[in-house]
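From the shared-data thread, chain only:
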Amino acid sequence: MSAAFLRYTLPMQTTEQVTALLADMRAADAMAQDMTADKWLRPRSLPDAAQFLSLLARTANAQAILEIGTSVGFSTVHLALAARETGGHVTTLELLPAKYEAAQANLVRGGLTGVVTQHLGDALALLPTLPGPWDLVFLDPEKEL
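Structure, as tokens:
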């Protein structure tokens, strides 16, 4: 399969504010690579993986998307872009309050709060309370857990 076939494009509904947000998030991640204190607040998904998730959600016409492990919302933004295009919705779960708040700020900045519902707490406790079924599930909790 050629690399050209796998080339990713952002969804058509991407705004300048989302493009700027993603650029800033990638820059912050690059700066935090060597800063141990900030490692928990940097994006955990590689840009290619997040873009592939968005492409997968769009291709599957996913309506109900579940993300376990929001972190600062890098993958969430990509999934939200896909959900906005498909008419779907993202439900995302995060254990750590600082990450939840960082993701919330990023979603507000990107204008994506209308297609994302955030939950703060332990995924094992939250999952039984969620409606489901899910068209796409992205499982990305802390690797240690």
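DSSP finds five helices and four strands in the chain.
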